[in-house]
Amino acid sequence: MAGTGSIETIRALCCDLPAGDAGAAQAARARQAVLTKPPGSLGRLEELAEFMAHWQGRDIPTIDKAVALIFAGSHGITQRGVSAFPAAVTAQMVGNFAAGGAAVNQLARQAGIDLTVVPLDIDTPTGDFTQGPAMDEAAFVAAVDAGRAAVPDGAQLVCVGEMGIGNTTVAATLCAALFGGTGSEWVGRGTGVNDAGLARKAETVDAALGFHGDRLSDPLEAARLVGGRELAAIFGAVLEARLRGVPVLLDGFVATAAAAPLAKLAEGGLSHCLAGHVSAEAQHGRLLGRLELRPLLDLGMRLGEGSGACLAVNILRGALACHSGMATFAEAGVSEG
Ligand SMILES: Cc1cc2ncn([C@H]3O[C@H](COP(=O)(O)O)[C@@H](O)[C@H]3O)c2cc1C
Ligand SMILES: O=C(O)c1cccnc1
Protein backbone atom coordinates (compact mmCIF):
# COMPACT_ATOMS: atom_id res chain seq x y z
CA MET A 1 0.00 0.00 0.00
CA ALA A 2 1.40 3.39 -0.97
CA GLY A 3 1.20 6.10 1.71
CA THR A 4 -1.65 8.52 1.18
CA GLY A 5 0.44 11.67 1.67
CA SER A 6 -2.35 14.15 2.38
CA ILE A 7 -5.83 14.54 3.76
CA GLU A 8 -7.09 15.22 0.25
CA THR A 9 -5.77 11.86 -0.99
CA ILE A 10 -7.59 10.15 1.88
CA ARG A 11 -10.74 12.07 0.99
CA ALA A 12 -10.51 10.93 -2.64
CA LEU A 13 -10.26 7.27 -1.52
CA CYS A 14 -13.38 7.71 0.62
CA CYS A 15 -15.34 9.01 -2.36
CA ASP A 16 -14.75 5.91 -4.46
CA LEU A 17 -15.58 2.92 -2.28
CA PRO A 18 -16.26 -0.52 -3.78
CA ALA A 19 -19.83 -1.75 -3.35
CA GLY A 20 -19.16 -5.43 -2.64
CA ASP A 21 -20.49 -8.40 -4.57
CA ALA A 22 -24.30 -8.36 -4.69
CA GLY A 23 -24.26 -11.54 -6.81
CA ALA A 24 -22.44 -13.52 -4.12
CA ALA A 25 -24.89 -12.20 -1.53
CA GLN A 26 -27.79 -13.28 -3.72
CA ALA A 27 -26.27 -16.76 -4.12
CA ALA A 28 -25.84 -17.03 -0.35
CA ARG A 29 -29.48 -16.02 0.16
CA ALA A 30 -30.57 -18.67 -2.34
CA ARG A 31 -28.52 -21.30 -0.50
CA GLN A 32 -30.06 -20.32 2.86
CA ALA A 33 -33.49 -20.93 1.35
CA VAL A 34 -32.73 -24.60 0.56
CA LEU A 35 -30.90 -25.60 3.76
CA THR A 36 -32.69 -28.06 6.05
CA LYS A 37 -34.56 -25.61 8.28
CA PRO A 38 -37.76 -23.63 8.11
CA PRO A 39 -37.13 -20.46 6.06
CA GLY A 40 -35.69 -17.69 8.23
CA SER A 41 -35.40 -19.91 11.31
CA LEU A 42 -31.73 -19.07 11.84
CA GLY A 43 -32.75 -15.44 12.15
CA ARG A 44 -29.88 -13.02 12.01
CA LEU A 45 -27.36 -15.83 11.37
CA GLU A 46 -28.80 -16.00 7.85
CA GLU A 47 -28.23 -12.28 7.31
CA LEU A 48 -24.69 -12.63 8.61
CA ALA A 49 -23.88 -15.37 6.11
CA GLU A 50 -25.25 -13.14 3.36
CA PHE A 51 -23.29 -10.14 4.64
CA MET A 52 -20.05 -12.13 4.68
CA ALA A 53 -20.74 -13.44 1.16
CA HIS A 54 -21.38 -9.89 -0.05
CA TRP A 55 -18.08 -8.56 1.27
CA GLN A 56 -15.89 -11.61 0.66
CA GLY A 57 -17.35 -12.01 -2.83
CA ARG A 58 -18.00 -15.75 -2.37
CA ASP A 59 -21.30 -17.55 -1.88
CA ILE A 60 -19.69 -19.74 0.78
CA PRO A 61 -17.56 -17.35 2.86
CA THR A 62 -15.02 -18.53 5.43
CA ILE A 63 -13.07 -17.10 8.35
CA ASP A 64 -9.76 -18.93 8.13
CA LYS A 65 -7.87 -15.73 8.83
CA ALA A 66 -9.46 -13.30 11.29
CA VAL A 67 -7.33 -10.48 12.67
CA ALA A 68 -7.78 -8.05 15.52
CA LEU A 69 -5.97 -4.74 15.18
CA ILE A 70 -5.64 -2.85 18.45
CA PHE A 71 -4.28 0.67 18.10
CA ALA A 72 -2.91 2.61 21.07
CA GLY A 73 -2.52 6.37 21.42
CA SER A 74 -1.98 9.05 24.07
CA HIS A 75 -4.09 12.16 24.54
CA GLY A 76 -3.26 15.71 25.60
CA ILE A 77 -6.69 16.12 27.18
CA THR A 78 -5.84 13.60 29.93
CA GLN A 79 -4.38 16.54 31.88
CA ARG A 80 -7.96 17.81 32.26
CA GLY A 81 -8.92 14.99 34.63
CA VAL A 82 -11.21 13.14 32.23
CA SER A 83 -10.30 9.54 33.13
CA ALA A 84 -10.43 7.52 36.32
CA PHE A 85 -6.94 6.17 35.47
CA PRO A 86 -3.58 7.86 34.85
CA ALA A 87 -2.30 8.36 31.29
CA ALA A 88 0.63 6.02 32.04
CA VAL A 89 -1.78 3.07 31.91
CA THR A 90 -1.82 3.26 28.10
CA ALA A 91 1.85 2.22 27.79
CA GLN A 92 1.48 -0.24 30.67
CA MET A 93 -1.43 -1.94 28.93
CA VAL A 94 0.56 -2.13 25.68
CA GLY A 95 3.06 -4.14 27.73
CA ASN A 96 0.25 -6.26 29.13
CA PHE A 97 -1.04 -6.98 25.59
CA ALA A 98 2.47 -8.09 24.59
CA ALA A 99 2.65 -10.37 27.62
CA GLY A 100 -0.77 -11.87 26.87
CA GLY A 101 -2.42 -10.67 30.09
CA ALA A 102 -5.27 -8.47 28.87
CA ALA A 103 -8.91 -9.45 28.33
CA VAL A 104 -8.55 -9.12 24.57
CA ASN A 105 -5.66 -11.62 24.54
CA GLN A 106 -7.97 -14.27 25.99
CA LEU A 107 -10.93 -13.41 23.77
CA ALA A 108 -8.82 -13.32 20.60
CA ARG A 109 -7.16 -16.66 21.37
CA GLN A 110 -10.49 -18.28 22.24
CA ALA A 111 -12.06 -17.13 18.95
CA GLY A 112 -9.05 -18.03 16.78
CA ILE A 113 -8.08 -14.44 15.95
CA ASP A 114 -4.55 -13.16 15.24
CA LEU A 115 -3.98 -10.16 17.50
CA THR A 116 -1.77 -7.26 16.47
CA VAL A 117 -1.17 -4.30 18.75
CA VAL A 118 0.04 -1.10 17.10
CA PRO A 119 1.28 1.64 19.47
CA LEU A 120 1.20 5.04 17.77
CA ASP A 121 3.75 7.50 19.22
CA ILE A 122 2.43 6.76 22.69
CA ASP A 123 5.26 8.75 24.30
CA THR A 124 4.02 11.89 22.51
CA PRO A 125 0.43 12.77 23.46
CA THR A 126 -1.70 14.59 20.91
CA GLY A 127 -2.35 18.27 21.55
CA ASP A 128 -5.00 19.38 24.07
CA PHE A 129 -7.79 19.95 21.57
CA THR A 130 -9.55 22.52 23.74
CA GLN A 131 -6.66 24.86 22.89
CA GLY A 132 -5.45 23.79 19.45
CA PRO A 133 -5.55 20.90 16.99
CA ALA A 134 -5.10 17.37 18.35
CA MET A 135 -2.88 16.60 15.36
CA ASP A 136 -1.29 18.49 12.50
CA GLU A 137 -1.95 17.13 9.04
CA ALA A 138 1.26 15.07 8.93
CA ALA A 139 0.50 13.35 12.24
CA PHE A 140 -3.08 12.62 11.21
CA VAL A 141 -2.13 11.21 7.82
CA ALA A 142 0.65 9.11 9.40
CA ALA A 143 -1.85 7.59 11.83
CA VAL A 144 -4.41 6.86 9.10
CA ASP A 145 -1.64 5.27 7.01
CA ALA A 146 -0.50 3.17 9.99
CA GLY A 147 -4.04 1.85 10.27
CA ARG A 148 -4.22 1.08 6.56
CA ALA A 149 -0.84 -0.67 6.62
CA ALA A 150 -1.87 -2.83 9.59
CA VAL A 151 -4.48 -4.75 7.58
CA PRO A 152 -2.57 -7.89 6.57
CA ASP A 153 -2.77 -9.61 3.20
CA GLY A 154 -5.27 -12.43 3.18
CA ALA A 155 -7.35 -11.16 6.10
CA GLN A 156 -10.96 -12.36 5.74
CA LEU A 157 -12.32 -10.46 8.74
CA VAL A 158 -10.87 -7.48 10.60
CA CYS A 159 -11.75 -6.60 14.21
CA VAL A 160 -10.78 -3.09 15.29
CA GLY A 161 -10.14 -1.91 18.84
CA GLU A 162 -8.17 0.63 20.83
CA MET A 163 -6.27 1.50 23.98
CA GLY A 164 -5.78 5.11 25.04
CA ILE A 165 -6.55 6.60 28.43
CA GLY A 166 -8.88 9.57 27.90
CA ASN A 167 -10.22 8.35 24.59
CA THR A 168 -13.89 8.08 25.57
CA THR A 169 -13.77 11.88 25.84
CA VAL A 170 -12.09 12.04 22.43
CA ALA A 171 -14.79 9.80 20.98
CA ALA A 172 -17.55 11.92 22.57
CA THR A 173 -16.05 15.09 21.09
CA LEU A 174 -15.81 13.54 17.66
CA CYS A 175 -19.44 12.37 17.89
CA ALA A 176 -20.60 15.86 18.87
CA ALA A 177 -18.63 17.30 15.94
CA LEU A 178 -20.09 14.82 13.46
CA PHE A 179 -23.66 14.52 14.69
CA GLY A 180 -24.27 17.70 16.70
CA GLY A 181 -25.27 18.06 20.33
CA THR A 182 -23.43 19.17 23.42
CA GLY A 183 -20.84 17.48 25.60
CA SER A 184 -23.34 16.21 28.16
CA GLU A 185 -25.27 14.50 25.35
CA TRP A 186 -22.25 12.39 24.29
CA VAL A 187 -20.11 11.69 27.35
CA GLY A 188 -20.25 8.60 29.53
CA ARG A 189 -18.28 7.31 32.48
CA GLY A 190 -15.53 5.54 30.52
CA THR A 191 -13.23 3.80 32.98
CA GLY A 192 -15.60 4.88 35.77
CA VAL A 193 -15.30 8.61 36.47
CA ASN A 194 -17.45 10.09 39.23
CA ASP A 195 -19.99 12.88 38.70
CA ALA A 196 -17.31 15.59 38.87
CA GLY A 197 -15.25 13.69 36.28
CA LEU A 198 -18.31 13.36 34.06
CA ALA A 199 -18.86 17.12 34.28
CA ARG A 200 -15.19 17.73 33.35
CA LYS A 201 -15.66 15.46 30.34
CA ALA A 202 -18.71 17.41 29.16
CA GLU A 203 -16.88 20.73 29.69
CA THR A 204 -13.91 19.43 27.69
CA VAL A 205 -16.15 18.48 24.77
CA ASP A 206 -17.94 21.84 24.86
CA ALA A 207 -14.67 23.76 25.07
CA ALA A 208 -13.38 21.89 22.01
CA LEU A 209 -16.57 22.55 20.05
CA GLY A 210 -16.33 26.23 20.93
CA PHE A 211 -12.64 26.49 20.06
CA HIS A 212 -12.79 24.77 16.65
CA GLY A 213 -16.25 25.93 15.57
CA ASP A 214 -17.10 25.54 11.89
CA ARG A 215 -13.81 23.82 11.07
CA LEU A 216 -15.40 20.66 12.54
CA SER A 217 -18.03 20.53 9.79
CA ASP A 218 -15.66 18.55 7.58
CA PRO A 219 -15.55 14.95 8.93
CA LEU A 220 -11.85 14.45 8.17
CA GLU A 221 -10.91 17.76 9.73
CA ALA A 222 -12.99 16.80 12.77
CA ALA A 223 -11.04 13.52 13.03
CA ARG A 224 -7.78 15.48 12.89
CA LEU A 225 -8.71 18.41 15.14
CA VAL A 226 -10.55 16.60 17.97
CA GLY A 227 -9.54 12.98 17.35
CA GLY A 228 -6.59 10.88 18.36
CA ARG A 229 -3.96 8.74 16.68
CA GLU A 230 -5.58 5.41 17.58
CA LEU A 231 -8.96 6.66 16.32
CA ALA A 232 -7.37 7.87 13.07
CA ALA A 233 -5.68 4.47 12.65
CA ILE A 234 -9.00 2.68 13.16
CA PHE A 235 -10.48 4.94 10.49
CA GLY A 236 -7.58 3.97 8.20
CA ALA A 237 -7.98 0.24 8.87
CA VAL A 238 -11.74 0.39 8.24
CA LEU A 239 -11.13 2.31 5.00
CA GLU A 240 -8.43 -0.10 3.84
CA ALA A 241 -10.63 -3.10 4.61
CA ARG A 242 -13.37 -1.58 2.47
CA LEU A 243 -10.98 -0.92 -0.41
CA ARG A 244 -9.89 -4.58 -0.28
CA GLY A 245 -13.39 -6.02 0.22
CA VAL A 246 -12.78 -7.28 3.75
CA PRO A 247 -15.64 -7.21 6.29
CA VAL A 248 -15.05 -5.44 9.62
CA LEU A 249 -16.28 -5.96 13.17
CA LEU A 250 -16.35 -2.73 15.15
CA ASP A 251 -15.86 -2.78 18.90
CA GLY A 252 -17.35 -0.28 21.36
CA PHE A 253 -18.09 3.43 21.56
CA VAL A 254 -14.54 4.55 20.79
CA ALA A 255 -13.98 2.27 17.79
CA THR A 256 -17.41 3.12 16.37
CA ALA A 257 -16.81 6.86 16.77
CA ALA A 258 -13.44 6.43 15.06
CA ALA A 259 -15.06 4.81 12.02
CA ALA A 260 -18.01 7.25 11.90
CA PRO A 261 -16.33 9.88 9.66
CA LEU A 262 -16.42 7.33 6.83
CA ALA A 263 -20.23 7.18 7.09
CA LYS A 264 -20.31 10.97 6.91
CA LEU A 265 -17.98 11.10 3.91
CA ALA A 266 -19.71 8.45 1.80
CA GLU A 267 -23.24 7.08 1.65
CA GLY A 268 -23.00 3.47 2.88
CA GLY A 269 -19.39 4.10 3.91
CA LEU A 270 -19.72 1.63 6.80
CA SER A 271 -21.86 -0.96 5.04
CA HIS A 272 -18.97 -3.45 5.22
CA CYS A 273 -18.99 -3.10 9.03
CA LEU A 274 -20.89 -4.92 11.74
CA ALA A 275 -21.17 -3.70 15.32
CA GLY A 276 -19.75 -6.53 17.44
CA HIS A 277 -21.61 -5.32 20.48
CA VAL A 278 -23.25 -2.38 22.14
CA SER A 279 -21.05 -1.18 24.93
CA ALA A 280 -22.38 -0.01 28.28
CA GLU A 281 -20.68 3.34 27.59
CA ALA A 282 -23.67 5.68 27.77
CA GLN A 283 -23.95 6.91 24.18
CA HIS A 284 -22.81 3.89 22.19
CA GLY A 285 -26.35 2.71 21.52
CA ARG A 286 -27.35 6.12 20.22
CA LEU A 287 -24.27 6.32 18.03
CA LEU A 288 -25.04 2.90 16.55
CA GLY A 289 -28.58 4.12 15.88
CA ARG A 290 -27.27 7.16 14.01
CA LEU A 291 -25.12 4.84 11.90
CA GLU A 292 -27.95 2.31 11.41
CA LEU A 293 -25.78 -0.46 12.88
CA ARG A 294 -27.46 -3.20 14.90
CA PRO A 295 -25.13 -4.74 17.50
CA LEU A 296 -24.60 -8.50 17.65
CA LEU A 297 -24.11 -8.65 21.42
CA ASP A 298 -25.34 -6.67 24.42
CA LEU A 299 -23.46 -7.95 27.45
CA GLY A 300 -22.90 -4.81 29.50
CA MET A 301 -19.22 -4.75 28.52
CA ARG A 302 -17.44 -1.37 28.61
CA LEU A 303 -13.80 -2.22 28.18
CA GLY A 304 -12.69 -1.34 24.67
CA GLU A 305 -9.48 -3.11 23.51
CA GLY A 306 -11.49 -4.78 20.73
CA SER A 307 -12.97 -7.13 23.33
CA GLY A 308 -16.58 -6.97 22.11
CA ALA A 309 -15.56 -7.32 18.48
CA CYS A 310 -13.43 -10.40 19.19
CA LEU A 311 -16.19 -12.04 21.21
CA ALA A 312 -18.66 -11.48 18.35
CA VAL A 313 -16.43 -13.42 15.94
CA ASN A 314 -17.85 -16.54 17.59
CA ILE A 315 -21.31 -15.57 16.35
CA LEU A 316 -20.02 -15.10 12.82
CA ARG A 317 -18.25 -18.46 12.98
CA GLY A 318 -21.53 -20.06 14.02
CA ALA A 319 -23.38 -18.40 11.16
CA LEU A 320 -20.82 -19.56 8.59
CA ALA A 321 -20.63 -23.09 10.02
CA CYS A 322 -24.35 -23.49 9.41
CA HIS A 323 -24.17 -21.82 6.02
CA SER A 324 -21.35 -24.03 4.71
CA GLY A 325 -21.99 -27.25 6.62
CA MET A 326 -25.74 -27.79 6.57
CA ALA A 327 -27.30 -30.18 4.09
CA THR A 328 -29.86 -28.95 1.60
CA PHE A 329 -33.36 -30.50 1.55
CA ALA A 330 -32.40 -32.38 -1.62
CA GLU A 331 -29.09 -33.68 -0.20
CA ALA A 332 -30.66 -34.91 3.03
CA GLY A 333 -33.87 -36.23 1.54
CA VAL A 334 -35.90 -34.04 3.88
CA SER A 335 -39.33 -32.93 2.64
CA GLU A 336 -39.82 -29.22 2.05
CA GLY A 337 -42.91 -27.51 3.43
C1 LIG B 1 -6.52 -1.16 33.02
C2 LIG B 1 -7.31 -0.66 31.83
C3 LIG B 1 -7.44 -1.46 30.70
C4 LIG B 1 -8.18 -1.00 29.61
N1 LIG B 1 -8.46 -1.56 28.43
C5 LIG B 1 -9.20 -0.74 27.73
N2 LIG B 1 -9.44 0.38 28.43
C6 LIG B 1 -10.32 1.44 27.93
O1 LIG B 1 -10.33 2.57 28.79
C7 LIG B 1 -9.85 3.75 28.17
C8 LIG B 1 -10.94 4.74 27.92
O2 LIG B 1 -11.57 5.17 29.09
P1 LIG B 1 -11.32 6.65 29.67
O3 LIG B 1 -11.75 7.60 28.61
O4 LIG B 1 -12.15 6.71 30.91
O5 LIG B 1 -9.84 6.75 29.99
C9 LIG B 1 -9.25 3.29 26.87
O6 LIG B 1 -7.88 3.06 27.05
C10 LIG B 1 -10.02 2.05 26.56
O7 LIG B 1 -9.50 1.21 25.63
C11 LIG B 1 -8.80 0.25 29.62
C12 LIG B 1 -8.67 1.07 30.74
C13 LIG B 1 -7.93 0.62 31.84
C14 LIG B 1 -7.78 1.50 33.05
O1 LIG C 1 -17.13 1.26 24.53
C1 LIG C 1 -15.94 1.58 24.53
O2 LIG C 1 -15.28 1.66 23.47
C2 LIG C 1 -15.24 1.87 25.83
C3 LIG C 1 -15.93 2.00 27.00
C4 LIG C 1 -15.25 2.29 28.17
C5 LIG C 1 -13.89 2.43 28.15
N1 LIG C 1 -13.23 2.29 27.01
C6 LIG C 1 -13.88 2.02 25.85
Automatic annotation (TrEMBL):
Which HAMAP family does this one have?
Answer: CobT
Q: Does the keyword Cell cycle apply?
A: no
Q: Active site located where?
A: 305 (proton acceptor)
Gene Ontology MF: a single term = nicotinate-nucleotide-dimethylbenzimidazole phosphoribosyltransferase activity
According to its UniProt entry, the function of this protein is described as: Catalyzes the synthesis of alpha-ribazole-5'-phosphate from nicotinate mononucleotide (NAMN) and 5,6-dimethylbenzimidazole (DMB).
Its UniProt entry gives the catalysed reaction(s) as: 5,6-dimethylbenzimidazole + nicotinate beta-D-ribonucleotide = alpha-ribazole 5'-phosphate + nicotinate + H(+)
**Annotated protein name in UniProt:** Nicotinate-nucleotide--dimethylbenzimidazole phosphoribosyltransferase
The answer to whether UniProt assigns keyword Glycosyltransferase to this entry is yes
Query: What CDD domains has UniProt attached to this entry?
Result: DMB-PRT_CobT
Organism source for this protein?
Aquibium pacificus
For this UniProt record, the keywords arranged alphabetically read as follows: Cobalamin biosynthesis, Glycosyltransferase, Transferase
Give the matching InterPro entries. Answer: Nict_dMeBzImd_PRibTrfase (IPR003200), Nict_dMeBzImd_PRibTrfase_bact (IPR017846), Nict_dMeBzImd_PRibTrfase_N (IPR023195), Nict_dMeBzImd_PRibTrfase_sf (IPR036087)
Which pathway does the protein contribute to?
Nucleoside biosynthesis; alpha-ribazole biosynthesis; alpha-ribazole from 5,6-dimethylbenzimidazole: step 1/2
Residues annotated as transmembrane: none
